Protein: Tetraspanin
Organism: Gambusia affinis
Amino acid sequence: METKPVITCLKTLLIVYSFVFWITGAILLAVGVWGKLMLGPYISLIADNSTNAPYVLIGTGTVIIVFGLFGCFATCRGSPWMLKLYAMFLSLVFLAELVAGISGFVFRHEIKGTFRRTYTDAVLNYNAKDEASRAVDYLQNSLRCCGVYNYTNWFGSVFYPSNGIPASCCFNSSDCNPDDLRNATVAPSKVYHQTNMPPLFQGCFELVTSFMETNMAIIAGVTFGIAFSQLIGMLLACCLSRIITANQYEM
C-alpha cells in the first residue's frame, strides 16, 4: 500500500512528460512540412545537392508523436516491459540529438564553406528562372543584401551582361529599372551597398554567417537542453517500471 502513492506520482509525472514530448514531435512535424512547402527551393543554397532535411524533420516528428502516445498508453497501463521499451526509445532519441548537436557545432565551418560555394555558384549561374535563382532573389529581398560579399559579385554572372544586377538587389523597387542595373556606375546607388546602407546590410554571406555565429550558443543550448530532457523521461520510465515490478512481486 505504501508504494501506491509513489506509483501514482510517477505515473502523473511521466504522462505530463510524454504529453510534452508529443508536442515536441508535433512541432517538428509542422516545421518539416512548412520547410518542405515554403523553404524547399531555398534550403538548396546551403547544400551541394538537394537536401532531405524537411523529410528528416517530418519523419522524426511522426515517430516522436507515435512514441509519445505509446508512452502515455504504457504509463496508463502500468506495463513494465512497455515502460522499458519507452525508456529505450528515449535513450535512442537522446543519442541521436546529442550526435546531431555535436556534429553541427564541430562542422559549422564546413557548413559555412558549403554555403559560400553553393551561393557563389547560384549567383554566377543566375538566370531568374530556376529554383536556385528564385532562392537567391528570396534571400536578397528578405535579408536586404546584394551578392555574396557585395554587388560587384554580380559583374561576373552570366545574367549581368544582358540584364544587369537582379532587381531583388534594389532597395527601392519603384526607382530601379534595367538600364540603371546594367550601368556599373549608376547601379551602386540603386542596390544594397555600403554607400547608402549601414554596414549591417552588406553581402548575403556575411549576414547569414554572422547570424549563425551570433546565435550559435543559443542554438547549441536549446539543442542540448532538448537532448538532455530525454534523460528525465528515461529516469521516470525506468523508476516506474522497477517500482511496478517490485509491487507486483510483493503482492
